[in-house]
Write a structure and sequence with these properties.
single chain, 4-stranded antiparallel sheet, 7 strands, alpha+beta
Length: 425
């Protein structure tokens, strides 16, 4: 429930109290007479279910000299009998759509702090990628201010608010641009010459990459609409989930641009666009399901046509990106193809009876080596006691078996295989 503090012209308070009690399920209602700079007033305290707030405010539009203060904190108004108190406390409702919308508007605040966080996040993500430090990448996800604009874009889509949509997209692009520029400048100033392993991993695209923004958008929207005590998941954790899909690709994009690694730059752009449209699609749908729409008690600046058009464009862009991903193999499927190839390698060795698998790793090397995509397979095996073949013979036969299997599976790369035969002491 939410508390509302209402100021109205003296003599009108009783009508509001009756309205709140009889029609909207208000509880623990009270009224006091007070004086303000506008003269004598009735000061009313009302506790309403979250779902009734917007309709209640719509009913108050006819009252003159009305001032309402919405206190966006969950409250637990209790009343006898005592035996029913636990059940009432357990009845936790989602936030009012009006509250979610106003919170989104309120977050579109100072640009200085917003851009400062984006720059700080860029510095931390650069250090994390440059030093291959995973804990610094986690810190960058906590600092990077990407979750706010992404969620506000979804709120604007659900509400049909073109003004909020423009501002949110501008802040999203600005934050990404600052992070990219900061990481590019650091790479140039500190004379970075080679792409680190963290950069390579962050730039890889999997066939299931689309799932992360969809899950992140839905989780972010759920966190914003749920009441404070109805979820054990903090807003920081959800914001980090959204930033996890954005901070490393943005940092990799800037660093790769400074190094002239244009293949990684294109992968980074692809990931960033996919994150935005995926988050917006999932979050906007969740917001609509929880009641955010153009029809509101106040702030009726939304346009009905904007939601279906924006959602349609977002869906088309997402489908186009996924189609492009599957048409450009292996460039936009490297991570998934590596997993599939590693599975094939292990199956070949297990079925060969020539050796026992110790460890195998499969990875794509540079994008273009003499016009080919190269799949490097590093395999460590142990000779069984009953095998008398030489190490070289085992290596040669396993290499041919693995290369033939990968060709049969139509892997769009040239497999280079290195077999290392190990001996037990």
């Amino acid at each position: 429930m939410r508390q509302l503090l209402i100021e109205v012209q003296a003599g009108k308070g009783k009508a509001i109290l009756e309205l709140a009690k009889q029609k909207f399920g208000g509880t623990n209602l009270s009224q006091v007479e007070a004086n303000s700079i506008r003269g004598a007033i009735d000061l009313i305290f009302v506790y309403l279910p979250n779902s009734q707030i917007e309709d209640f405010l719509a009913e108050l539009e006819d009252f003159s000299e009305l001032h309402v203060t919405l206190i966006p904190r969950g409250v637990m108004p209790l009343r006898p009998p005592v035996a029913e108190v636990p059940q009432k406390v357990m009845d936790v409702e989602p936030k009012s759509p009006l509250e979610v919308f106003l919170a989104g508007l309120q977050s579109v605040g100072s640009w200085k702090g917003f851009l400062a966080y984006a720059a700080a996040g860029g510095v931390v993500v650069w250090i994390g990628l440059f030093t291959n430090s995973s804990f610094l990448l986690v810190a960058a996800m906590l600092i990077a201010p990407f979750a706010g604009p992404a969620m506000n874009t979804a709120i604007a889509t659900a509400r049909g608010d073109s003004m909020l949509l423009r501002k949110s997209l501008l802040r999203y692009v600005s934050a990404i641009s600052v992070t990219v520029i900061v990481t590019a400048i650091l790479s140039l100033v500190l004379r970075q010459e080679l792409a680190t392993s963290s950069m390579v991993e962050s730039s890889k695209v999997s066939t299931i990459s689309v799932l992360l923004p969809l899950v992140g958008g839905a989780a972010g929207a759920l966190n914003l609409v749920q009441s404070e005590r109805s979820s054990l998941v903090s807003g920081t954790a959800v914001g980090m989930l959204v930033a996890a899909a954005l901070a490393p690709p943005a940092g990799t994009l800037g660093m790769a641009a400074a190094l002239g690694r244009w293949g990684m730059v294109l992968n980074g752009l692809f990931l960033l666009v996919m994150q935005l449209v995926g988050i917006n699609l999932a979050a906007a749908i969740v917001f609509r399901l929880y009641g955010l729409s153009v029809e509101g008690a106040r702030y009726k600046r939304g346009k009905k046509w904007l939601f279906p058009i924006t959602l349609g464009i977002t869906s088309l862009v997402l489908v186009a990106l996924v189609s492009l991903q599957f048409s450009l193999s292996p460039n936009l499927q490297r991570s998934s193809l590596e997993q599939r190839a590693n599975t094939e390698v292990q199956q070949v060795i297990e079925n060969s009876n020539l050796a026992r698998l110790v460890k195998s790793s499969v990875s794509f090397t540079r994008a273009n080596i003499e016009g080919q995509n190269t799949l490097l397979c590093l395999v460590y095996v142990q000779r069984p006691n009953n095998v008398t073949a030489s190490d070289r013979e085992i290596s040669t036969r396993l290499t041919k078996l693995i290369q033939n299997r990968l060709r049969q599976k139509d892997f769009p790369a040239t497999p280079l295989v290195n077999i290392n035969v190990l001996e037990a002491p």
